[in-house]
Amino acid sequence: MASNSRGQFSSKFGFIMAAAGSAVGLGNIWGFPTQTASNGGAAFLFVYLAMVCVLAYPMLVAELTIGRYGQSNPIQSLKKVWPKGKVGAVILGITAMTVASLILSFYAIVAGWLVGAFAGSGLEILGMDAAAEWVTSFGDSRNLLLMVIFMAMTAHVVKNGVHDGIEAWSSRLMPILFILFGVLILYIFTQEGAMEGLEMYLIPDFSMITPKLLVSAMGQSFFSLSLGCATIMVYGSYLSKNVNLPKTAMQVAMVDTAVAIGAGLLILPAMFVAKHNGVEIFSATGELLSSDTLVFTVLPAMFHTMGTMGTVVSLVFFLLMMIAALTSSISMLEVPVACAIEELNQKRTTAVIWIAGVITAISAIIVFNFGALFGLVIKVTTVYGQPLLGLCWALFVGWLWSRDKVLQEIKQGYPELEKGLFWKIWPWYVRVVCPILMLMVFFA
């Protein structure tokens, strides 16, 4: 298909909201505060901010540049960057597509729990306690139903295309997310115990910085911007050539980081409000309890201690979580869909239906073999798949792609590129420093 028949983002705002939406997900609102609470609070926050600058941002520019240069799906884009290694490019493109699909297969299950928590709060307000109990209690049939509902929501947005689907929905949902965040943070700050959480979050104890913390922060910054699984590459392919890539990547990274910081401002004080209200959050040795399910156990327990107001706050909080999950899941589904449309010449609706169907079937298999598969799929995709693919993109841009072509691509939206500091540092940095940092994440 000719590139001009492809969808495009119609505005820079739409792209930033979509790309930030892809990046802003459970990794920020669930993963980041949990990592911060487990790794000494403010010390982790400071190292994380440094890692966004030294690893995530340069890689974000690299992945966006590959996508916009290719103006196509990951398979075609990688082929254009590496014309001599077409077989390798196809294998990597298919691997990225598979990793994105597998991440979505477990993500949809977790996002389904959020749908359940949201519905549970609504049902409680309506006095339907038995139904609320069912949608918030762990069980195969409930997990399956909620996952299918979430996948249907994701497929509905992607089916409408880049402009009417992804851009339109991201441009609506992301501002709502920011408003809900602001309201919840202000509300939590009025509660007893919140200031203790705020102190832990904002006053650093630099003796807490260990090699383990450095690697955790590096990994979190990388995953937080959804790097490695080609979602940013696909979004980059829908960008017009006159967009300034380094500046736009900076804006996406800033929005994503602001949401992560906001999640910390909400969840760490909320943990201490919960502690103040008698909810156990730390063990006798000071370890964070139930870190994996913090959002599903500690916070609902806190909301319950607030009476009716707590149910309303819970409803708003899980609506926020659902929006964050949805803006990420649409970017993951778009990766295989873009490949099917352009490699198999399929209509968008056809591609969305069968690919969403396959991913839903994989999710169903995980639901019914939860103990054996859930953790395994997460490990294979996020611990191994994403960092290794990210390393490949760095090697592509740093070593395989002619530096002159990279320069010409970025210059289209940034004519004075060669005069600035960015071009003096970034090419060798992506070539040497980023691969070393990613290998550290991987081998840790």
TrEMBL record:
Main location as per UniProt: membrane
Alphabetized SUPFAM superfamilies for the sequence: SNF-like (SSF161070)
Entry-linked InterPro entries: Na/ntran_symport, SNS_sf, YocR/YhdH-like
A Pfam cross-reference name: SNF
Keywords, in A-Z order: Membrane, Transmembrane, Transmembrane helix, Transport
Domain of life from the UniProt record: Bacteria
Record's protein name: Sodium-dependent transporter
Record membrane topology: Multi-pass membrane protein
TM region positions: 12-30, 42-66, 87-114, 144-161, 173-190, 221-240, 252-274, 294-323, 351-378, 384-401, 421-443
Organism: Vibrio albus
An annotated GO cellular component: membrane
Localization per Swiss-Prot or TrEMBL: Membrane
Family annotation (CDD domains): SLC6sbd_Tyt1-Like
